[in-house]
Amino acid sequence: MGNATSVNTTSKPKGNHTEVTSAQSTPTKGSLAGPSTAQNGTHAGSAGEGTSKQASASAGEANQSGAVTSKKGEEKKDRKIDSAFPKVPLKVVHDNANSSLSSKKHSSASKGKGDGDGLTVPTAWNAASLIPRTRFCGTVENTNKTKDEMSRKLTKERLHVLKKQSKNGVLAVQKKNVDVVFHVTHDGNDGNVSDSTISDQIKEMNQAYANYGFSFTLTNTTRSDNKTWFHGVTSGNSLETDMKKALRVGDASILNLYTVKFPDNLLGFSTFPFDYDDAPNSDGVVFLYSTMPGGDAQGYNQGKTAVHEVGHWLGLYHTFQGGCADPGDSVDDTPPQAEPTSGCPTKKDTCTGDSLPDPIHNYMDYSSDPCLNQFTQGQAVRMDALTSHYRKL
Ligand SMILES: [Zn+2]
């Protein structure tokens, strides 16, 4: 079925499309949904709390603030911001200073399924009247503790190196360029996004990551007029496997982006760097074509979905991962957060005792596109560390 072609010369009109479909959402692989409004607290909250609080508090977090550590089974424990990060912006440098990162390969157990397995998607979430929609990311949550501990160790080592190199307390992460191959799937005109839209999407990614160490260069575009893939691919199904098998190119350092329509309300999903060795053919980001700049996904059409998913591809978790408990998202300077954000609230603080609002403007939350505009220094260091080790970037 892979009638893929590699033509990238003509700009074709974007298909007009109404994007919420029947919404038969079946999170077969532990999707963390952020259903709208009323459902948000129950469903999403339970997803968050059931995750990594079981992770060991001795897993090597560079937590110098004496922040409260979590105990197994504890429901909510406040997680405090690590003082290891200076209160100044990161500086991005262009030299390729060697890090002291170990290049030792990590062999892991089988890829864990997300804790979202078995979650029941609320009926209202399936309603055709789902307006406004919320972000719905199908990235499979990592539950492999060994991979988590390795990621934290790599990040801690990277931070140590950066702090040694820092001047006046300014951390300087390396500037890395990522080559991008863009795979457009479409059904006739539907989804056949123009080259200029693709260019705008890459620009949006470059803008978002400019202060955090990454740039992106489009090296090729493929177009596949394949309605089966376009309408049917979702996280973890056989069509995803088929599509990637036919289209994916390059090694761990190459970012393969795929646009589809999705049958189930997803905005996108991604793989993590530490999963590459186990499943190289699955590597990449799949996202809803209408989330690209100027698309039809109302509230989610500034290209921030790709920014969010690429954050996973570079090694980041959702800011609400693990809820309020340590280690949360395994990043020390993102405030603890119990559940995903919907829309762009003026005030939100779901973890008491930390006196810090939820990071609703962080690209790794579920807020609407206009709300998202930042990463943190800790996230930049983690992306730097994990892409050095696993993607050789
Ligand atoms: Zn996500």
TrEMBL record:
Residues 71-82 have a biased composition (Basic and acidic residues). Keywords: Disulfide bond, Hydrolase, Metal-binding, Metalloprotease, Protease, Signal, Zinc. InterPro entries: MetalloPept_cat_dom_sf (IPR024079), Peptidase_M43 (IPR008754). Residues 1-118, 327-351 are annotated as: Disordered. Pfam families: Peptidase_M43. SUPFAM superfamilies: Metalloproteases ('zincins'), catalytic domain (SSF55486). GO terms for biological process: proteolysis. This is Zincin. The lineage of its organism: Eukaryota, Fungi, Dikarya, Basidiomycota, Ustilaginomycotina. Residues 296-385 form the Peptidase M43 pregnancy-associated plasma-A domain. GO terms for molecular function: metal ion binding; metallopeptidase activity. Belongs to the peptidase M43B family. PANTHER family: METALLOPROTEASE MEP1 (AFU_ORTHOLOGUE AFUA_1G07730)-RELATED, PTHR47466. CDD domains: ZnMc_pappalysin_like. Residues 1-68 have a biased composition (Polar residues). It comes from the Eukaryota.
